[in-house]
UniProtKB/TrEMBL annotation:
Protein name: Amino acid transporter transmembrane domain-containing protein
Spans through the membrane: 69-90, 125-146, 158-177, 184-205, 225-243, 264-286, 306-331, 351-368, 374-391, 412-434
Any single GO CC term annotated in Swiss-Prot or TrEMBL for this entry: endomembrane system
GO molecular function, one term: symporter activity
Amino acid transporter transmembrane domain ranges (all copies): 38-429
């Protein structure tokens, strides 16, 4: 029996059949990584680890400051709801057309054809590459924050810490063969997340109580407010989405759809509460001068801030592996890397290929430590299309005969709205890059 692998090309030797819980045949594309082995609870922690990284310590500045109290709070709640909705649409298409779509590009290719497969893979690759690079910058910034706490000689620059972080991330990536192998590390990540979030929360409350009246007015001119508002709106949805939901869902046990829905509900209930807490308290404590990012300027005992930054660094190393796993899976499958992770061929392949991939990430991170501006652009041209535009249109196309006219109109409205948001966010990001390029230089120590 010949089946397509998602890109429109038939392969009789690269797919296999399984029997799902309803005893119907479902074709699963061949993969070198482990799939259908994880509980929904473990997958829920994968999703939660992806959103509760040290990035949350900066959301009070990137979301609340440009939006203010009421729009900021309402925006976060709405972003949570629409992100859960969009992710649920993709999750429900995981088993569609007699196939299990374990990669986002497979699903797009199955529905639209070869060109969509290639475009989706390109968008996803750029998105994940930029996220990985951002995590290395974040880890390097955490290491520098620790250094600054104990030394003010300014000998060690940010690019040096980024290089160290990239090396540690590579060691971790080489040691963990696939996404499902993170099991114990997900628990470690959760503990680390709680440490820096609790420290940030407590120290921010202390500063907020002792501080004079704060300024909560939205800074900037009328024009700049418009652009920063658009950028903050893009950051809202970027905070909740991975852009690799089918790859994560591939690891979950049958029944894959209902189990994934449980994992998503876990992510968007218990998982977002720490994010809300540290974002709101940071803005309350510091207003428009919010400075909780990596606890660099928060008042408190040095050892406490050092512990929090060490936790941020280690948790970032774990979180990066999640977003790098689609590339690892592609390379391992393409070159037939199977069997024992400790086999000489497999280990040497991971050292060479994964190490090389993260070396490129690290070089870009050191070269452009103000990558946040470029990540805003990446979010506009990839996160929006992957998470919202494509999700709604794929669902519309796949379920076309089963939807009412009102439901079809709803999905088209979503496609059009997020399409316009994507364009607006891209324009805003380009403006931000143009402005900041006058301030920053390559290999900057920021």
């Amino acid at each position: 029996m010949e089946v397509t692998n998602g890109d429109g090309v038939g392969h009789s030797d690269m797919s296999r059949k399984v029997i799902d819980e309803e005893n119907s045949a479902v074709v699963i594309p061949e993969t070198a990584h482990q799939i259908s082995s994880d509980s929904w609870f473990q997958v829920g922690f994968v999703l939660t680890t992806g959103i509760n990284s040290a990035y949350v310590l900066g959301y009070s500045g990137t979301i609340m400051v440009p939006l203010g109290w009421i729009p900021g709070v309402i925006g976060l709640i709405i972003a949570t709801a629409i992100s859960l909705y969009a992710n649920s649409l993709v999750a429900k298409l995981h088993e569609f057309g007699g196939r299990r779509h374990i990669r986002y590009r497979d699903l797009a290719g199955f529905i639209y054809g070869r060109k969509a497969y290639s475009i989706t893979w390109a968008l996803q690759y750029v998105n994940l590459f930029m996220i990985n690079t951002g995590y290395i910058i974040l880890a390097g910034s955490a290491l520098k924050a620790i250094y600054v706490l104990f030394s003010d000689d300014n000998v060690m620059k940010l690019p040096y810490f980024i290089a160290i972080s990239g090396f540690v991330c590579a060691l971790f990536g080489i040691s963990i063969p696939h996404l499902s192998a993170l099991r114990l590390w997900l628990g470690v990540s959760t503990v680390l997340s709680l440490i820096y979030i609790v420290v940030a929360f407590v120290l921010s409350v202390k500063d907020g109580i002792e501080a004079p009246a704060r300024d909560y007015s939205i800074p900037g001119t009328t024009t700049s407010k418009i652009f920063t508002t658009i950028g903050a709106s893009a950051n809202l949805v970027f905070a909740f989405n991975t852009g690799m939901l089918p790859e994560i869902q591939a690891t979950i046990k049958q029944p894959v759809v209902s189990n994934m829905m449980k994992a998503l509900y876990f992510q968007f209930t218990a998982g977002v509460l720490p994010m809300y807490a540290v974002t709101f308290i940071g803005y309350w404590a510091y207003g428009t001068s919010t400075s909780t990012y990596l606890l660099s300027s928060v008042n408190g005992p040095v050892w406490v801030k050092a512990l929090a930054n060490i936790s941020a660094f280690l948790q970032t190393v774990i979180a990066l592996h999640i977003f790098a796993s689609p590339m690892y899976e592609y390379l391992d499958t393409k070159f037939g890397i199977k069997g024992s992770p400790l086999a000489i061929r497999n280990l040497s392949f991971r050292i060479g290929v994964r190490g090389g991939y993260l070396t490129i990430n690290t070089l870009v991170a050191a070269l452009l430590p103000f990558l946040g501006d470029f990540m805003s652009l990446t979010g506009a041209i990839s996160t929006f299309p992957l998470t919202f535009i494509l999700a709604n249109h794929m669902y519309l196309k796949a379920r076309h005969n089963k939807l009412t006219s009102l439901q079809k109109l709803w999905h088209w409205l979503n496609v059009c709205f997020f399409g316009l948001m994507s364009i607006a966010a891209a324009v805003s990001a380009l403006r931000l890059i143009a402005v900041d390029s006058k301030t920053y230089s390559v290999f900057a120590d920021i």
